[in-house]
Amino acid sequence: MEYRSQKIAYWYFAIALLLFTLQVVLGLWLAFNYTFTVPQGIVDVFSFATARAMHTNLLVLWMLLGFMGGTYFIVPEETKSEIYSTKLAWFQLVALVTTGVAALIGFAFGWTQGRPLLEIPTTLDIVVVIGALVFLFNVGMTMYLAKRWTVIQGTLLGGLLFLALLYLFGIPFYQNEVIDWYYWWWVIHLWVEGAWELVTAAIFAFVLMKITGVDRQVVEKWLYVEIGLFLFTGIAGTGHHYYWIGAPKYWLWVGGVFSALEPLPIVLMLIDTMNHVKHRKGKIQNPLVWTYAVGCAVLHLIGAGVWGFMHTLPQINYYTHGSQVTVSHGHLAFFGAYALLNLTMFYFAMPRLKGIEEFDDKKGKIGFWTMTTAMMLMGLSFGIAGVVQSYIERMLGMGYMVAQSYMRLWMGVTFFLGICFFIGVLIMVTDLLTLRPARKTAG
Amino acid sequence: MSKKTAFWIFLLGTVSSAIVFLGLTWDTQRQVAALSHVDKLSAQVVEGKRVFEKYNCNDCHTILGFGGYYAPDLTKVVQRIGEDGIRYRVKSPEKAFANSTRKMPNLKVMDTEIESLVAFFTWIGNVDNGDWPPQDSKKRLSRGEERMVAGAGVSPGAAVFQTRGCMNCHSLNGTGGTFGPVLDTIGRKLNREQIEHYVRNPKSVNPKAMMPAQKELSDKELESVATFLADLK
Description:
The structure holds 2 protein chains of 2 kinds. Chain A is mainly alpha-helical. In chain A, 79% of the residues lie in helices and 0% in strands. Among the domains of chain A are: 1-149; 303-437, no CATH class. Chain A has helices at residues 8-35, 40-45, 48-79, 86-108, 122-146, 151-167, 177-212, 216-237, 250-260, 263-278, 287-311, 314-320, 324-353, 362-395, 400-433, 438-442. Chain A is globular. The mean pLDDT of chain A is 95. Chain B has 3 domains: 10-37; 41-128, Cytochrome Bc1 Complex, Chain D, domain 2 (Orthogonal Bundle), CATH 1.10.760.10; 137-230, Orthogonal Bundle (Cytochrome Bc1 Complex, Chain D, domain 2). Chain B has 11 helices and 4 strands. A two-stranded antiparallel ribbon of chain B has the order 1-2. Chain B has a two-stranded antiparallel ribbon with strand order 3-4. In chain B, helix 7 (156-163) packs across helix 11. The interface between A and B is large, with 85 and 85 residues.
């Protein structure tokens, strides 16, 4: 840690990790609901819908907190100055976490906007917007006063601005369900395949540059190409969500073609990562950070790239749209692209925040391999359930519950794998919160 | 490649994609009125959408394929189970799903709200959305029926039974829905003509019947499914 104000990032990371753990607990409950029969009495007071709203909102909240913490860690080093105001950073953290907790409790009592992923009621949306504005102001002022522009900073700020702007499209009530979904995807798709990719690419470039010592000019050059390709394929690629919503037919072409190209930037990112490590200067200090970074690049490609590619071809999507295939893709892509990215950043920054040069990475390694193996297998078991569903329900037309009865076994397998994943998360979280220097254990 | 070239790749890539996307968004806005029949988007339909959101239905059910995957898609729910089917399930899920392995919460939805919901589902079922979902597409299921008869050697009546939604409510040999009676030995109770008559208009036989009248089966399909069922003894 070179700047005192970077310290604030620690609390963003720590809270993000707790929320991540909670998210997985709710995920287990959801898988339980698919595998076993939950009695009417419980369903009436705590429905699957409520638990799902919590599971997905926790995901969004912990990842955004991770991005924000990452930003507060990176910006001082990039601008070579302290954060404009640590007080504002604290205010914003408290505001967002309070809103998140209020929203979660609200869901349990039916206080909801009732739209998947955007369940947070309008009143709380206002607090989220204020929190986001404070964050952008704080980061923007730091950069403005320092006047040391870098491409990494620009990409980060651009991504965060884009992210905040898109959130606004999810706030109003749309009378027409078709229009509602059209703009719902402006938030969801343009977040994960636009704004979030920008933030990710910037954080990833920063970590790569720091751990490999590769020249900034080279890293930033590839950063431009990657974000260019991400946005080129991602923006018009939104069309793959418009196939069956009552939008014009040309979206089948636009969505199909642009999303078929979406794996390109991810492939480039992977090649570029491998290249940097080949040309690294000196030994990589904490190899576990590197493990997480490569894991992120590989799973990003499998989950978002390969799975996404197959699932968005209109001919396949007609049968798999809105089935467990979507769930398989969603889990692999989110974990690969965003959970691992955040964890890469946490493992990079946490030792520095605690003043540990080289940390003992035994537990961290176990955590990494438990989580990634379990998640890969979960992707497969969700995928099998999804193919069974697409075939029995959609191709044969034998009815929803008939398909579900055949899928139950695979949802049970997923539940078991979910428990393994949860164990991996617990190991990783305790490890990150209790990092120790390497030498002590070695001696 | 220089950093400047890289910058231009970024700029051109982003701007060109954004132009395509925003241009098509403008055109979509123009066309959606006709595709979604905005003229039929009454105050009651909008109210139904609010009810749908108030009770967070969308986190278990999908609509247009989006939402939770824990319960059936609702885009063509009116075509699939009829208006009364919706009323019954929303009003008394504990009864409707008593035998089901998966339950639906009783959210104490008011009668007026249920009527708005029905209006909302009726409207959305008529949106021109590329004949999705496949399980409710008449065109596609007729083809599935033909494939089953030709490929798997299934009798035409069994193919109709499997592909035309009968199994959403009824079961045979333990496979199928739990809303309607098990039909394993229905042929002992009813003959072919009686089954045909019942399927076309259940309420004329039993005024309290929950089963929606099957108006969309062709005479030939009805005959073959009735023949198939009458043989189950």
